[in-house]
Amino acid sequence: MKALRPPDNGGGQAFESLDGKVSLVSWASFNVDGLGDVERRWTEELAEGKRTITYKRKTVSWYVVSGVLEDGTGFYTRYTADKSYACGWSIGYPQKEEKKYQAWIERIAKEHEARLGEGADGVRVPPDR
Asked: Which long-range contacts (CB under 8 A, 24 or more apart) does 118-127 make?
């Protein structure tokens, strides 16, 4: 995978496979203007058109939605938030090659830890910041 240009606000990173078939995007931000409202984001996620959802799961602090876009791209999206922070990641891949990429998705999903509010040094930032 190769890293693509990060957003100007430094709130994430996108990667693309060398053949351009797979994309992985991660993002994080402060929870402003209700961004971290998991219920609202869940509703918006389910309402997005031009796709078929094949799996979905929601808890109080996170959700996962996966399926197939109209153009045949498979996707898996994870969103996590608390009262101060929000983060997530999404992977897109050729659905017809899902078996090839399933191990990638499972490994990322298993090892993903949404360390909300923790800096690079691992110190928890107080929620009032």
From this structure: 127/82, 127/83, 127/84
